[in-house]
Task: structure prediction
Amino acid sequence: NCTEPWARTSRRMETAVVKQYHGTNFTADVVKMVTIHTRELDSDHWINHPVIYSKLSKLFNTNTEYFASPLNFNLAHSNFFSEHTVDQLFGSLGNSWNATWHKSGVANPIFKLDDIVKTFAYAKKFAQKPNPASYEPYQYIVTIPLWKSMGAQYMHFTRDQCVHPLFTFDTEKYCFHGPW
Result:
């Protein structure tokens, strides 16, 4: 069932958003945040089902989500990045394009060619730098669509020695939800 976990996650998300808030005018900041993300409803920024993220987080020990918002970050991750400054008031670590990807995590970029290509480049760049605490490589799980309309333009990344395709989901069996 695709909708039931979303209801549970939504209630937990409300609590997390309130707990992480560290601004001075909660109501005004929520309105600003919701206004920004409402404009993105028609964009190509989608999120994975919470059960998938939770399982990936446990399996690969990820704790960071590189493209999210206070309204859609997965609660399995203790850290998330968002491109919008107001989201920092609700726990975002800032814009992931301006950060060093120093934690293993998931990267679910906006499904536009430039963002997908840039995400692969960042993931590869930072995966090749070992964690100074353990000398183990960082790992990034990147979610991308296999759309025939543009897949050929970035599928060569999946043949890179640093990339290991994990799963392919049939669209009929995969629940994909918008940024709420």
